[in-house]
Each structure stands twice: as C-alpha cells, then as structure tokens.
Design a protein that fits this description.
Number of helices: 2
Strand order of the largest sheet: 1-5-4-3-2
CATH topology: YaeB-like fold
Order of helices and strands: EHHEEEE
CATH class: Alpha Beta
Number of strands: 5
Distance between the termini: 26 Å
Number of domains: 1
CATH superfamily: RelE-like
Shape: globular
Length: 86
Amino acid sequence: MRLVISEEAAQKLASMQQKVAKDILRRLEVIAENPFANHPNVERLKGHKDWWRLRKGDWRVLYYVDRPNEQLVAEVVEHRSAAYRT
C-alpha cells in the first residue's frame, strides 16, 4: 500500500524533533507494507472501521486504510494529550 501523509500531519512532523519524526515515518512505511498484520504499538480505534492508532512515546498517529485506493493515510499526528480531541 502507498503511504499518504495529510498536510496537517506533515506540518506536525516537520515541527517536532527530527529523530522522532523520522522514526514515526519509518514505522508508518513498515505498517503500509502490510497494514492488517500485527504491529507493535498499533491498535484499531474502537467504533471506527479501518482507523488505527500508532503510539510512539508521547506521540500518537491516527491513520486509516483506504482500501479502494490501496492507501494508508496518516491523518493526525498529535501529542497524546491532544490526539483524541476531535
């Protein structure tokens, strides 16, 4: 699957520590290769089909799998204190 980063998520990644941002991107690329495999620190969001959460330290990445277009879309990158407030 192709990895797509939303504009909002890209801005947040650009503003955080480079080491953490690179690690998040690396993990997303691995997940995109097989998004439905069992990955560490990844959980499905309850009540949301095809939405998942990646945990990296104090950071959360909320992403969904766009099956028809074969894309994994990273929609939100936030500190854990703000990640679920939408």
